[in-house]
Amino acid sequence: MAEKQVLLTGDRPTGKLHIGHYVGSLKNRVAMQNSGDYEPFIMIADKQAFTDNARDPEKIHNSLLEVALDYLAVGIDPSKSTIFVQSAVPELSELTEYFLNLVSIARLQRNPTVKTEIQQKGFGESIPAGFFIYPVSQAADIALFKGQVVPVGDDQEPMLEQTRELVRTFNNYYGEGILVEPQGVFPPKGQGRIPGLDGNAKMSKSLNNAIYLSDDEDTLWTKVKSMYTDPEHIRVEDPGHVEGNMVFTYLDIFDKDTEKVAELKAQYQAGGLGDMKIKKYLFEVLNAELAPMRERRAKYAEDKDAVLQMLRDGSDKARAKAQETMNEVRNAMGIQYWG
């Protein structure tokens, strides 16, 4: 029997997770967990959340449980995956500090994902140092667990490349094979980043354009009704555009009946199909996907103490593995001064 590959992934607790997270990586995590080919470690990255939320610790505290509930709702199984909290594994900070000596400021400045996020957050010249170096922290997260496989969205490839560079540099200096270079697993083409309800390229809580995994039916319908379609499609009989039309963008992603979607597109483009009709159809598709998640989430939310205990148990298990790797790292660096 082939040895299981270590899978490492996670999310920052800054609010509930939305359908972009689900399509971007959560579906892959569940499928890989259930395949039996991987040893999954799934981290709630509360320390990284502080890099741009340091003045709002309550937000991170409250979001921790919400993210855990979302994980359980989508089907992540604590009997198959180790779900843990980043701050409960102090060895991650230690390896981050060592990694910081192996990368230049100039290299961090070239990271396109960080450059984009700095611009989006409007930091200007006041970039928190923790935010600036968080790709190094991410690299430590992966390397400490010897993560071989990382399910991520397309925009995270630069982060993985930075991790591989740091692992290669560490191994070159201190000994080949100590740490492992990870490979990414990406969502199907076109699903790496779902645009927001308003057509904005990014779906996010701050832009108020997201559908959350925990949204109830009424909230879901309200959001679907608000979706950006074709501003020139004023009357039902008017020909409409499907390109840039969020309803069809979402149908392409979520509706398994591709023939039905193709028919709706042709009818919309020819004229004779109203926006409200296709929105109702999209609502049915999305609700069928989200309803089982809502039910699971509500069940787990009835016993939040049990969810917190799950996180504690997972963090204990994760720390034990982290300590094994750190012993190897310290020995390789010559800083394991005693027993």
From TrEMBL:
InterPro entries named among the record's database cross-references: aa-tRNA-synth_I_CS, aa-tRNA-synth_Ic, Rossmann-like_a/b/a_fold, Trp-tRNA-ligase, Trp-tRNA_synthetase
Keywords for the protein's UniProt record, in alphabetical order: Aminoacyl-tRNA synthetase, ATP-binding, Ligase, Nucleotide-binding, Protein biosynthesis
An example molecular function term from Gene Ontology annotations: tryptophan-tRNA ligase activity
Reaction equation(s) it catalyzes: tRNA(Trp) + L-tryptophan + ATP = L-tryptophyl-tRNA(Trp) + AMP + diphosphate + H(+)
Biological process (GO), any one: tryptophanyl-tRNA aminoacylation
EC number of the protein: 6.1.1.2
GO cellular component: cytosol
PROSITE patterns: AA_TRNA_LIGASE_I
UniProt feature coiled coil, ranges: none
Source superkingdom: Bacteria
Family annotation (PANTHER family): TRYPTOPHAN--TRNA LIGASE, MITOCHONDRIAL (PTHR43766)
Family to which the UniProt record says this protein belongs: Belongs to the class-I aminoacyl-tRNA synthetase family.
Name by which UniProt lists this protein: Tryptophan--tRNA ligase
Species the sequence originates in: Weissella confusa (Lactobacillus confusus)
